[in-house]
Design goal:
heterodimer, A: 4 helices, B: about 240 residues, globular
Chain lengths: ~90, ~240
């Protein structure tokens, strides 16, 4: 099976995430036009969805490596998740 | 501002970069947004353009997951190390030296011929230690000099690890979209992310990133090389002028 076909699942995931993010920002802009304060809250919610898309992709990749029987890279993907979480925490605390 | 976001997404998606190279100067010079706010907005938009454009590269089978994971680990560690070392480093000297490295990189990209032994996505990724060294260095330089990771990752993967330029850009787009998460979380949690600007720019960035990724996954290698070289020469000139000023 071609590599492209094997990771097709992620393409569908990423497309779905993109549409969710687009919908969130469109709704936020509409809310912003109606009421600025409410719009800013919607923007913040949209950014949270966007931020979550990174870890979601990494979790998917770790499952992908697991399915492939590639334990080493599964752990590497988890390490990336941990590094991102730690780096974010360090920057927030600093 | 929406058009600015679209331009950043388009160039970023086309070249496998983040688009900060367009967005940060635009926000600071045209819209007079303070630098720290511009950087925060840029990081958030890099996540979006990386997600959207890498989808287009994925459709064409132009992302090497294994390499992306390895690059993410060491580039993130390099970025943290770089920010810790920043106060100790001679910034002006680094800028001048790096501008020369960028010019040499431009020459190398333009003169490299893509041969039959070019690595593709079904090959095993390069050995861990060379990838670790390159990604650490890319992360450090990115953090020390304030340049985006993609501008270093694409040439490194293309020139050092002998991937095709298409696969280098797809892998870079995927990697930087993930690496930008840490910085974005931090800016968001500290309340340093200007929601009004981010919200307005984001739709433009997503549309531009989608188009840039679509075009980039189909563009002729020669055209990509020329556009990439123009960006590198612009960056080298800017760094050189900052370095000698």
């Amino acid at each position: 099976m071609a590599e492209k076909d094997r990771y097709y699942g992620l393409v569908k995931w990423q497309k779905a995430m993109t549409w969710v993010i687009v919908a969130a920002f469109v709704v936020s802009i509409l809310a912003y036009v109606i009421d600025r304060g409410v719009g800013v809250i919607f923007y913040a919610a949209s950014v949270i969805i966007l931020i979550l898309s990174g870890p979601v992709r990494l979790v998917w990749i770790s499952f992908y490596f697991r399915r492939e029987g590639d334990r080493k890279y599964q752990y590497y993907a988890i390490i990336v998740l941990l590094i991102i979480a730690l780096t974010a925490l360090m920057k927030v605390m600093h | 501002m929406i058009m600015g976001g679209a331009a950043a997404g388009l160039i970023g998606g086309f070249l496998g970069l983040g688009g900060g190279i367009v967005l940060v100067p635009l926000l600071t010079l045209v819209f007079k947004v303070p630098m720290h706010e511009a950087v925060a907005i840029s990081l958030a938009t890099i996540m979006a353009s990386g997600l959207v454009s890498s989808t287009k590269y994925l459709e064409k089978g132009l992302v090497d997951y294994r390499l992306a994971v390895l690059l993410s680990i060491f580039a993130a560690v390099g970025a943290v190390t770089g920010s810790a070392l920043a106060p100790l480093m001679p910034e002006k000297f680094l800028q001048t030296a790096f501008s020369i490295v960028l010019l040499y990189t431009t020459y190398s990209i333009l003169s490299k011929k893509d041969g039959a032994n070019t690595r593709n996505q079904s090959d095993r990724p390069p050995r861990l230690i060379p990838v670790a060294l390159v990604a650490l260095l890319a992360g450090m330089v990115s953090s020390l000099l304030g340049v985006g990771g993609g501008v270093l990752i694409v040439p490194a993967v293309y020139l050092i690890f002998n991937y095709s330029l298409d696969l280098s850009r797809g892998t870079s787009a995927f990697t930087i979209g993930i690496i930008a998460t840490a910085g974005s979380v931090a800016y968001f949690a500290r309340g340093a992310l200007n929601m009004e600007y981010t919200g307005q720019i984001m739709l433009g960035t997503i549309a531009g990133g989608w188009l840039g990724g679509w075009l980039g996954a189909r563009a002729k290698s020669r055209l990509v090389k020329v556009v990439f070289s123009i960006i590198l020469i612009y960056l080298a000139t800017r760094m050189f002028l900052q370095g000698i000023s």
